[in-house]
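Hi support team,

I'm opening this ticket because the web form for multi-chain structure prediction keeps timing out on my end. I have pasted the exact lines I submitted so you can reproduce it. The total is 223 residues across two entries, so I didn't expect it to be a heavy job. Is there a limit I'm missing, or should I split the entries? Thanks in advance, R.K.
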Amino acid sequence: GQQVMQIPQYQHVQEGEDFTTYCNSSTTLSNIQWYKQRPGGHPVFLIQLVKSGEVKKQKRLTFQFGEAKKNSSLHITATQTTDVGTYFCAGDFGNEKLTFGTGTRLTIIP
Amino acid sequence: DTGVSQDPRHKITKRGQNVTFRCDPISEHNRLYWYRQTLGQGPEFLTYFQNEAQLEKSRLLSDRFSAERPKGSFSTLEIQRTEQGDSAMYLCASSARSQSAQYFGPGTRLTVL
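Hello R.K., no limit was hit. The queue was backed up. Here is the completed structure from your submission:
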């Protein structure tokens, strides 16, 4: 079936260090979206990537979509305590619904 | 607040009882989605609507689950004869069109005793 795998499952970083989470799909995606979920909260939309090789930036966050449209990454530069949460990628296989990855839970060591 | 709202926020019920949850999407959004999320997992797709039409239902959704969106605005998700395995967070999301950003509500946490 259509699956989206995400690694790592957990990441603990010192405040100020960088963080990266990776997402891989079993088949080509129509687009990929990224969401952030704070502890006790609900997923919040961050960005959508549609084009092959696309790179988008939001302040300290950089999102990439692979050339084959089967993988994606989120990189956070110089993490801050406000970055704490679980980051999910969600793939759209062209069937108009999202398949979420298992998420990467980021904790920050002050 | 013009975001997605869900009611109730928490529901505790005994096994075998029926429960119903409500979702009010962002007013101009014609797509509405239901997901289920368990601890440590990402949201799992359950079903979605385009206006009042239910376009797809996940194989995860047994016959005990039913969803409606009668006038293309709010939606309800009903679970009949609840089981302990139904305990989860039930999330609703809406979007303006297909393949666009989804905006989630705060969820309804269901506990089946």
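A quick check on our side: Chain B touches chain A at residues 33, 35, 40-45, 48, 55-56, 91, 93, 98-107 (CB under 8 Å). Let us know if the file doesn't open in your viewer.
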